[in-house]
Design brief:
By secondary structure, this protein is α+β, with helices and mostly antiparallel strands. It folds into 3 domains: about 120 residues, Nuclear Transport Factor 2, Chain: A (Roll); about 70 residues; about 90 residues, no CATH class. Helices cover about 40% and strands about 15% of the residues. The chain has 11 helices and 9 strands. Strands 1, 2, 3, 4, 5 and 6 form a 6-stranded mixed β-sheet that branches. A 3-stranded antiparallel β-sheet has the order 7-8-9, with no helix packed on it. The longest helix has 24 residues. The N and C termini lie far apart (about 55 Å).
Length: about 300
């Protein structure tokens, strides 16, 4: 007859978070967070896996041991027939139950090689059951709330965000989205309330000065008597060098009649990027005429989310 621990392992194998909700103890934290939060994150993660069709769902539990963070602690990695592990977990146990379950990033399985490890689940410092905010935490959370409130007021009153708003706003709140937090572990759930909006508007503020350069390139292009590869390729190469990544497109969700482009549900004034948008359309149209180049590492941004909002 299967005991409770066996059933918990089977529930993980079957990606059955509902069964884990029944089996795990309500008054016990897992991975340092309340049981309900732990299970809710598993539900989100399992649901995301099932809709992605990334790999086969024939997962089996393979025993192993942590090599670093909780060195010597044992647990299981859940691996399918393709060698994909959706998560490796340490299981601290008593005779009849598990006293804790938590994600492990330095897990070594016994007799089964992991070809690819997925991200698993993670939480924020203010999710933890023993979290006590410092004075700095309280001030930071207030700033996040203020940033969110100011943005929502602008959206409510103006609808479309212009440089008159997002330039000073990102200057004031841009440090909330500081990539250095990832390496110090200073990531809190209250950052999420505004993190992606700050990332997007910081990107917009950084590229805004390129509008004048885009205008000069637009004027040069319009001066060509005809458009063929021989005539415009040098222009394409130079434009691509000065306005890197623009050939991949800009403002795909553009509403020309209403005068905005949209990202992360933020509507940005399209007129402020009129030439930038038009040059992007040209580079995209003649993409195949632009030779591939290897960009040096130093060309990449080192601050903030390195994501392309468009």
């Amino acid at each position: 007859m299967k005991n409770k621990k066996n059933l918990i392992i089977e529930a993980f194998e079957q990606l059955d978070a509902n069964m884990l909700d029944v089996l795990l103890n309500d008054d016990q934290p897992y991975q340092d967070v309340p049981k309900d939060m732990f299970v809710d994150e598993l539900k989100r993660y399992f649901s995301e896996m099932k809709t992605s069709n990334y790999s086969k769902f024939d997962y089996k539990a393979y025993k192993g041991v942590c090599q670093n963070c909780s060195k010597g602690k044992t647990g299981y990695s859940f691996i399918n027939s393709e060698g994909h592990s959706f998560m490796s977990l340490v299981f601290e146990e008593s005779e009849n139950d598990y006293t804790d379950i938590y994600n492990c990033g330095s897990f070594c399985t016994e007799g089964k090689e992991i070809e690819e490890e997925m991200t698993g689940i993670s939480f924020y410092k203010d999710d933890e059951v023993n979290y006590i905010p410092t004075a700095e935490n309280i001030l930071e959370e207030k700033r996040c709330n203020s940033a969110f409130a100011e943005l929502q007021r602008e959206i409510t009153t103006e609808g479309i965000l212009s440089k008159q708003f997002y330039n000073p706003w990102t200057e004031k709140y841009g440090d909330i989205d500081d990539i250095s937090r990832v390496f110090t572990g200073e990531i809190y759930r209250y950052h999420l309330k505004i993190k992606y909006e700050i990332s997007t508007l910081k990107f917009i503020s950084r590229i805004l000065p390129l509008e004048n350069l885009a205008k000069s390139y637009w004027q040069e292009f319009m001066a060509f008597p005809i458009v063929n590869r021989e005539l415009i390729q040098d222009w394409l190469i130079k434009c691509d060098k000065d306005l890197e990544y623009l050939k991949y497109g800009f403002g795909d969700k553009a509403n020309f009649l209403a005068g905005y482009f949209e990202d992360r549900n933020l509507k940005i004034d399209l007129q402020e990027f009129y030439f930038y948008h038009n040059v992007a359309a040209i580079l995209s149209k003649y993409f195949d005429w632009i030779p591939e180049t290897d960009l040096p590492i130093e060309t990449f941004e080192s601050e903030g989310d390195f994501e392309f909002p468009f």
